[in-house]
Amino acid sequence: MEQYIIKGGKALQGEVSIGGAKNAALGILSAAIMTDETVTVENLPDISDINVMLQAIEEIGAKVDRINEHSVKINGSKINSMSIDYEFIRKIRASYYLLGALLGKYKKAQVALPGGCNIGSRPIDQHIKGFEALGASVKIEHGMIQAEAKELKGTHIYLDIASVGATINIMMAACLADGVTIIENSAKEPHVVDVANFLNSMGASIKGAGTDVIRIKGVKSLTGSEYAIIPDQIEAGTFMFAAAATKGDVLIKNVIPKHLEAITAKLIEIGATVEEYDDAVRVTTSSKLGHTNIKTLPYPGFPTDMQPQMAATLVTSEGTSIVTETMFENRLKYVDELARMGANIKVEGNSAIIVGVSGLTGAIVSAPDLRAGAALVIAGLVAEGFTIVEQVEYIERGYEHFEQKMQGLGATMAKIDIEDDKAVQKFKLKVS
Ligand SMILES: CC(=O)N[C@H]1[C@@H](OP(=O)(O)OP(=O)(O)OC[C@H]2O[C@@H](n3ccc(=O)[nH]c3=O)[C@H](O)[C@@H]2O)O[C@H](CO)[C@@H](O)[C@@H]1O
Ligand SMILES: C=C(OP(=O)(O)O)C(=O)O
After folding, report:
1. How many separate domains does the chain show?
2. Taking Cα atoms as reference points, which of 104, 106, 89, 98 lies closest to residue 143?
3. Most buried by CB count within 10 Å: which residue of 7, 112, 128, 132?
4. Which residues span the domain enclosing 137?
5. Each residue of 372-388: pLDDT tens digit?
């Protein structure tokens, strides 16, 4: 087990390059097994969720050839099992995409109920509603979701909630259904569009991804493809907030600025400067940041996956800010950890009420989930003295070489083994 140790108080400076989007990559790797031909996927993030997904598809018979840490070739012609083992699945949320992929291709799938971070109850009723509307029978038994159909038939589906997962899952299954499927109130996130573009590159016929109505004309089969995943909006946003919170000057490269608009708008509102280039953004902050209110919303609103990082930035901004989480009820678990570092922050209902303080002090804190963990790293970079962030395995679900990228920006940060009782001492000696 490992933890991060950070000596805070330094402004981040320099350039950082953003990796491929986790949430697009997970959908794309699942969709890759829907053809018997070989698919090459590039710009894969080197994170633990991706390794789990690759292991899971290999386990059911897909041939997975790692070309390098960011590219893979997948061939799904020898899939020999429709059942995904609990050991793999319980680790990640996006395992549910294998339901849509297998159901579409083989009309049968059995996948354990998904895991991932404990950020709320996360039902999958909309996924099930979609599969049933396509003609599948779905039941949950012994912790497994079982879906089966004689044939899948195109249909009209209205989602009660614009769910990212349900939209992608239904879209995948509908690609190989007979006839046209229309998904209304579909999610519009960039990763939904990226999975649709990938499926289209395999010969699917999907129109309207990125709007709230998606039209899918079923095709008989899908073909091989070569595809590069879009940059990760959330990784980019995290570095943008880290730059602002530490009063730094950082060029964040390999991004799609359009995907960052909600984040950019909030940074400008609190007084940071954001310069946009074709595929980069530069964030600079020279004076004290101000306060704001945010509410998490589906794209193009402010992303729930950026909410904790925004709160960590606001704790040392001037004035009172209110951060409201509308999607997942357990996404404010970082509040007590920030308070340990001297933040004036409390939870009221589904909001965090933040009164800005002049500074934070380093402490031992524990990452309750992926994005909350990233938020604690931002706080550690700002704080005076040493911060230890425990449970980095959550952070590594979604951030590639996080400590190395931060070091590249001048952060005094390292990953150490908790078994090594001299590691903290050694780090402190080295950096003091
Ligand atoms: C792997 C992946 O891409 N994860 C992302 C995906 O999660 P995920 O796909 O799980 O999120 P959804 O968009 O489905 O969830 C949005 C809201 O709808 C609710 N809901 C969802 C499905 C359903 O069948 N019934 C239901 O009630 C959820 O509880 C939540 O309140 O989108 C979330 C919202 O942008 C992000 O935080 C996650 O990082
Ligand atoms: C909540 C997240 O991921 P997942 O849905 O995979 O748990 C996230 O990426 O912030």
Report:
1. 2
2. 89
3. 7
4. 22-228
5. 999 999 999 999 999 99
Order of strands across the sheet that contains 144-148 = 83-84, 108-112, 144-148, 137-141
Which of 219, 222, 273 has the alpha carbon at shortest distance from 251? 273
H-only helix segments in 90-133 = 97-106, 125-133
Whole-number percent of the chain with pLDDT over 90 = 91
Looking at the CA of residue 26, tell me the nearest atom of ligand 2.
6
Q: From the CA of 166, how far away is ligand 1's center (Å)?
A: 8
| Regions of the chain short of the pLDDT cut 50 | none
Q: Please, which residues have CB within 8 angstroms of residue 300's CB and are 6 or more apart in sequence?
A: 188, 261, 262
Asked whether 304 lines ligand 1 (CB < 6 A), one says: yes
Nearest ligand (C-alpha, residue 373): 2
14 and 30 belong to one structural domain: no
101-159 pLDDT, tens digit per residue, is 999 999 999 998 887 778 888 899 999 999 999 999 999 998 889 999 999 999 999 99
Residues ≥6 apart with Cβ < 8 Å to 16: 239, 250, 251, 252, 253, 405, 408, 409
The answer to ipTM > 0.90 is yes
Ligand 2 atom at minimum distance from 328 CA:
1
Burial bucket for residue 20 (CB in 10 Å: 0-12, 13-18, 19+): buried
Q: Say what the pLDDT of residue 93 is.
A: 86
Q: Which of ligand 2's atoms lies nearest the C-alpha of 92? A: 6
Please identify every residue annotated as catalytic: 117
Mean pLDDT of the chain: 96
**259 and 386 assigned to the same domain:** yes
164, 185, 189, 328, best to mutate for ligand 1 pocket (most atoms within 8 Å of CB) = 164
Task: Among 164, 396, 397, say which to mutate for ligand 2: greatest number of ligand atoms within 8 Å of CB.
Answer: 397
pLDDT of residue 421: 84
**What is the model's pTM?**
0.97
Residues 14 and 31 in one domain: no
Q: What count of other Cβ atoms lies within 10 Å of the Cβ of residue 266?
A: 23
3-class secondary-structure state, position 21: coil
Closest ligand to residue 91's CA: 2
